[in-house]
Every structure is written in structure tokens, then in C-alpha cells.
Design brief:
This protein has helices at residues 6-15, 65-74, 83-86; strands spanning 19-23, 26-34, 41-49, 52-62, 91-93. It is of the alpha+beta class and 95 residues long. Strands 4-3-2-1-5 form a 5-stranded antiparallel β-sheet. A hairpin with a 2-residue loop joins strand 3 (41-49) and strand 4. Helix 1 (6-15) crosses helix 2. The longest helix is centred in the first third of the chain and has 10 residues, at 6-15.
Length: 95
């Protein structure tokens, strides 16, 4: 991971915190949240152009934030590759 370390990134991911990262000259935004009634968690990934969220790429609604994060990490979203397979070329970015 460029501009950060994968262990720190995963800690933020498992907490559902807002994270901005770049891969292949594209910017992505991932975040998670707990249902107000405590019924589960949701995590979503968006493709971002500037400050505009252009494309809802992925979403998971599962029992826990950890389950959502694990689902994200297992999803082949980048030309059949998972985040962990591309993470060496991912830039942990800011807006």
C-alpha cells in the first residue's frame, strides 16, 4: 500500500470508517455504518470523480461490520482481483 500500511487500512475498514483510496487512476470511497435498530451493518464502495460520487460499485448488508469488511476483501472488483490482491498498488488518499 502506498502512503500507508495495510494493517492500519484494515483496522479502519473493520471499524467502518470513511476511507478514500486510489487505484488505476481512479478514486474510491468506502464507508460502513450500523443500523440504528442494531439489526446489522452496511458497507458501500463508490467510484468518485472529484467530489461527485459517480458509481455505487459494491454494497454489503450483513450482521456485523467485520462481516461486511470481509465481504469487501473477498469481492473481485478490480478485473477479477480482490482488494488484497491489488493493495500493493493502492494509494491511501485524501480528498
Amino acid at each position: 500500500m502506498i502512503n500507508g500500511n495495510i494493517t492500519d487500512f484494515l483496522e479502519h475498514l473493520y471499524l467502518g470508517e470513511e476511507i478514500v483510496f486510489e487505484y488505476g487512476n481512479k478514486k474510491y470511497f468506502i464507508q460502513g455504518w450500523q443500523a440504528e435498530d442494531g439489526s446489522g451493518a452496511t458497507m458501500s464502495l463508490d467510484l468518485v470523480d472529484g467530489q461527485v460520487f459517480n458509481q455505487y460499485m459494491w454494497e454489503a448488508k450483513l450482521s456485523t461490520m467485520k462481516a461486511c469488511a470481509d465481504s469487501f476483501l473477498a469481492a473481485p472488483l478490480w478485473d477479477g482481483k480482490t482488494f488484497l490482491q491489488i493493495q500493493e498498488n493502492v494509494i491511501w488518499a485524501d480528498w
